[in-house]
Amino acid sequence: MRGLQKDLAELVSRDSVKTDPEDLFAYQSDATHYFAKRKPDAVVLPASTEEVAAVLSYANKNQIPVTPRGAGSGLSGGCTPVKGGIVLDMKRMNKIREINRGNMTATVDAGVVLGDFHKTVESQGLFYPPDPQSMTVCTIGGNVATRAGGPRGVKYGTTPHYVLGVEAVLPDGYVIQAGGKCVKQSVGYDITHLLAGSEGTLGVITKAHLRIMPLPPFHRTALVTCKSIENAAEMIAEIIAAGTVPAMLELLMGISVHVMNSMISPPAPTDGEAYLLMDIDGSESQVREDAETLKAICNDMGAMEVRVIEDEKEAATYWKARASLYPLALTMAKKVVAEDVTVPRDKVPVFVREVQAMAGRLGLLVGLSGHAGDGNMHPSILYGEVNEEQEKLARKAIAQIVKTGLALGGTISGEHGIGLHKSEYLEWDLGGAQIELMKRVKKAFDPNGIMNPGKLWLQGGE
Amino acid sequence: MRGLQKDLAELVSRDSVKTDPEDLFAYQSDATHYFAKRKPDAVVLPASTEEVAAVLSYANKNQIPVTPRGAGSGLSGGCTPVKGGIVLDMKRMNKIREINRGNMTATVDAGVVLGDFHKTVESQGLFYPPDPQSMTVCTIGGNVATRAGGPRGVKYGTTPHYVLGVEAVLPDGYVIQAGGKCVKQSVGYDITHLLAGSEGTLGVITKAHLRIMPLPPFHRTALVTCKSIENAAEMIAEIIAAGTVPAMLELLMGISVHVMNSMISPPAPTDGEAYLLMDIDGSESQVREDAETLKAICNDMGAMEVRVIEDEKEAATYWKARASLYPLALTMAKKVVAEDVTVPRDKVPVFVREVQAMAGRLGLLVGLSGHAGDGNMHPSILYGEVNEEQEKLARKAIAQIVKTGLALGGTISGEHGIGLHKSEYLEWDLGGAQIELMKRVKKAFDPNGIMNPGKLWLQGGE
Fold first, then answer.
1. Does ipTM come in above 0.90?
2. CA angle A397, A399, A400 (to 5 degrees)
């Protein structure tokens, strides 16, 4: 592939092209290393929209696969290149272009790291809610491409709710401006939200216009200790129905709090089977009022303890530990596969019961933590050993989790996306006619099929 | 067209097909009667998704144009049939299928009248914010198809923010379930939001899954009298930047309040050149606090008067009059063309100044009321006479309004959609490459081009 390297070096600056074996190795998968499929032939780190356009136009003419990549922190294999070709690492395009308080919008390059953006807007008293737990590394372009969520989704919604427009490069090299900086728009097809969640299969997002908000001035964290996970799940349904929605409403199993305690100071109580961890935000008077309401609901439903944490530093250790739950789980299990099923919120209790029963039947350790306030559950298969038998059991469990979610009117992914991990279940969720429609939409954007091939649906047809 | 009538009567119940000339006449346009183009050959009022599928499948085989229609209250000619064929009037499909408090969602048929849905959810202490001013007649299917907004958009966003999923019939008769009842989803392309705003050109929406909220318990209406329209526009930008966002934040010209006074009791003061009309909602303590903040901002910026209306019946007359502004304008002008340009919110003052100057130069009466809190302005051309010269001037003014909005980073439609009215300006907003992309997307859904032909973009290419 010396020709490829030479060609690319003419399109972008020479040090933006990587073809050394160790570089290519680092780009062969996202955080789901177990999906590693085929090393790319080259990695390009473009510095501008024009460079992205030049690379795509070249790849399109030469029918070379292109896999766009943010931070590679995905959990579905979305940026794992399965047919080699070019990986387009967007991290050099990392400028915050504008923060406009008078319009309450910001414009950012696709490669801006979410955590950096949070810090910048928060230093100005502003707020951008989406908070996938990989926020210290993940990029906003990746967030848009996967419709990323996070704990604050329960009150504030996920990334697509904040995307007003994108700049994107189509496979033929054309640059389009979809949507824009206006908070309302009805101008033809919503290309912005079609690109959101397309996982790099339609084009490359190079910029995003985002809605921002005033930063809520006051917060309190509350920890509810529950005697059983069903009890915790029932409290969630009751909280949603009562309408006092916290900014975050996480369901944690006892074992999760146990591993999180290595980061929580002073440690949380460990006598519950499950916990609700909440962040309540707003004006001080509103937060205090909401905290009382939530406390009353949980106590009425038999909570063992409801603790409102007044010390902000202590509260922060809870949220830092929560954001680290996936890496923490990896310290106690040989392998962790995090599921991402979402169910209607009133169905969380029955979902929890059925998954627990299934785990018991299969003799598997399945964590059941998740952003349960919006019905988004992350059942995690924790492997004691990695061997063929365990993999077989895990696959059985995943299929069963997915089926259980769908039977309850749920969906196979809330915020991780489909990538490779979920493509075999896509038809269960959407039906054949909708997948055929998606394939035709894909063709409308990418007639040569160069964009992130092998993703979303099972291969064979496109 | 006797054959058509006979064929259709075999697909749906006989009384669901209308072909009498007076019936067809009533379906030849939406509320923009001046776009009336060509009477349909038949009107069908389907009673079920299956009937919609049967009609589409038949029309697709026989290449007969199909124009879906909600209440026909649109202001862009979106459901005006330009090539005859079948108009599909969805109003018989009007069941509210589910209101689920535990999940905070509702499922409705496309033909449910928005005002009826408001009443139903509000009677249960629930809230569905979108409020296009035609809400007593318009249908939720029509709202979704045009991404309809309304005054509450400033705080709560527009229809697409509340649509979690749709059932839709594709032109080939296949029924798809896009999205669903979950508040988070990342499962392939967002077909739900591609259908939202597609104005009936991709398929027929038959059901919608909607997010609902708890009903805010307390409201206050405030009227701010301003010495000039620029002063009013500047206050809006300041209110947005301060972050205390009312549920509604309307800009009204003196002349608008003058005509609205026939419905406001007791009448509003008429000594301002412009007014801000606000609704502030939330808990009582929050509303009182916000009202003080907003009052202070407006007073600091030189408001002539800030009046918080304590009497709820009196307040209601303001909002009823506001919702009637378009028909009220028709009592004082021979013809009214309502524009729908949206600009970034910090650009509202300069937009207002430029449109006023342009109206002065052309000697035209241009109303400048609108949902200015979200940058969505409805400059209205008020015709003293309807004649060729006036039409020419009006066309010039509309083009100028659109250009002014775009030059400020705005967009040609905030909530009315493109239909026929804006198709000539679409390329100014989106550029040629994006329109070509939209045409390919259209083909992916509707290869025979039967769905609402002649809309969105200028014809010739599809």
1. yes
2. 60
